[in-house]
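Structure ticket #2291
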Amino acid sequence: MASLFALYPAFNHPMHNLQKDWIGSVAIAALGAGVITSFAVAQGQNPLTGLAITAFAAVSAVAIDHFL
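Resolution: structure written out below.
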């Protein structure tokens, strides 16, 4: 019987790697949060509040990713 890794190459995807790239994860999460935050800043929100929200969202996303 063939292994699942041979039958389904998606299981070999880098996202299933146990050793995660923390800097890359933070950068991607911050980029995603930063897009929404930049819209809020364009609507009149304080830029420092926007940066704080982006940082919090990025750290939260990486922590949730780590523990799940």
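Closing remark: The mean pLDDT is 76.
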